[in-house]
What does this fold into?
Amino acid sequence: MARLYVLLFLVQVVLAACALISCLSAEDDQVKALPRLVWVLVILFFPLIGSIAWFVAGRERPADAAGSGGPAAPARRPLAPDDDPDFLASLAERARAEDQERLRRWEEDLRRREQELRDRPDDRDRPEV
It folds into this structure.
């Protein structure tokens, strides 16, 4: 019987620690019902009830876990530029523009060289010495 009490005590301590960490690491807009300081005090003074209350009513659930009944959480922007579809699209557009500019310059150079070849006197027109 003593082992059961020790196990329940450890479960309560772990639950309180998880609730405290969750409460302290939550964004300001995710804390509901009470101010963060009050939640911390409730979790510390009433570990079992406070922890359960925090997970049930104190924090906003993630958008995928929340049903259709609650408001949708705002979409988060990607953290890294290589995950941002707008940034990747701008890179592709910039590369396409650079390729078109490079092609335009090559065509101009080719036309210039062709014109120089046309303007140059032909070797066959010169008399041989």
Observations:
- The chain has a mean pLDDT of 84.
